[in-house]
Amino acid sequence: MLRIAVPNKGALSGSAMAMLHEAGYQQRKESKELVLVDPSNEVEFFYLRPRDIAIYVSSGRLDIGITGRDLLLDSGADAEEILQLGFARSTFRYATKPGTAAGPQDFDGMTIATSYEGIVAAHLEESGVKASIVHLDGAVETAIELGVAQIIADVVETGTSMRNAGLEVIGDPIMTSEAVVIRRNGAPADDPKVQQFLRRLQGVLVARSYVMMDYDCRVEHLERAVALTPGLESPTISPLHHEGWVAVRSMVAAKEAQRIMDDLYELGARAILTTAIHACRL
């Protein structure tokens, strides 16, 4: 069986399990379940702390896992990302009290508090900065107020918690992160079970990003209509009972669907419908 690590809690967990369910895999119903076997898909899921997943995968005990890019890089594990999943997006940045520093170039001799010691250490070395790092497991915003550090480095989503603590974000982003599928470095890239798993997740990503659009169009406007809805290969065109009309079916980007419907209507198209795509293979 393919052995897959899944986050057991936190921001990654719910979205990861939802995507796996959409991809046709069984998922646990109780948070206390640590292992779930899906015999029909020949997969065994292990629900682990997100920070530990890269370590388990790099050891070879598990074949692949879902975790955050930031957690993968911070772990220093011998693993690599092989698919971006598009959720749990965040930015990793420095913050401090106003007037303390403008960016890493001012950090020499200072102390930085973070839960991501590996990422910060690598970034400081790359920047040629000599600063101390204090590892905290969470709530790093209070480190400055309590005198533990002059700078913090943490995940920033909206920046609200930083501002509430009287801090300002400084310098360029250290990195951007999102949920990713990872495997051990050197693992066979053509493993058929892994490839099938990735195809299923890619199918979910496409299904979430596109809708199927159907509409009726007069033949003389068809080329202009097709230019608006070119599809992935090309649209499906079918003649209608009424002469001079055709039915068109095409996949379009969900975020563009309303605008395209407006343009088609102005062109003379009618009976314009969109439907959700639940799964696909490209």
Runs with pLDDT <50, length 5+?
none
Q: SS-based structural class?
A: alpha/beta
Order of helices and strands: EHEEHEHEEEHEHEHEEHEHEEHE
Q: Oligomeric state of the chains?
A: single chain
**Main beta sheet: strand number and arrangement?**
6 strands, mixed
Shape, per Cα inertia axes: globular
- For the largest beta sheet, what order do the strands appear in spatially? 2-3-1-4-11-5
The residue fraction in helices comes out at 25-40%
Give the amount of beta strand, in percent. Answer: 25-35%
Calculate the mean pLDDT score and round it: 94
Radius of gyration: 24 Å
Number of strands: 15
Question: How far is the first residue's CA from the last residue's CA?
Answer: 25 Å
Number of helices: 9
Protein name: ATP phosphoribosyltransferase
Domain ATP phosphoribosyltransferase catalytic: 49-203
Pfam families: HisG (PF01634), HisG_C (PF08029)
Cofactor: Mg(2+)
Describe this structure as you would to a colleague:
The chain is an alpha/beta fold. The protein has nine helices and 15 strands. It has helices at about 10-20, 50-60, 70-75, 115-125, 140-145, 160-165, 190-210, 220-230, 255-265; strands at about 1-5, 35-40, 45-50, 65-70, 80-85, 90-95, 110-115, 130-135, 150-155, 170-175, 180-185, 210-220, 235-240, 245-255, 270-275. It has a six-stranded mixed sheet with strand order 2-3-1-4-11-5, sandwiched between helices. Strand 7, helix 4 (about 115-125) and strand 8 (about 130-135) form a beta-alpha-beta unit. The radius of gyration is 24 Å and the shape is globular. It comes from Streptomyces rhizosphaericola. Belongs to the ATP phosphoribosyltransferase family. Long subfamily. It is an enzyme of class 2 (transferase). InterPro entries: ATP-PRT_HisG_long, ATP_PRibTrfase_cat, ATP_PRibTrfase_HisG, HisG_C, N-reg_PII-like_a/b, N-reg_PII/ATP_PRibTrfase_C.
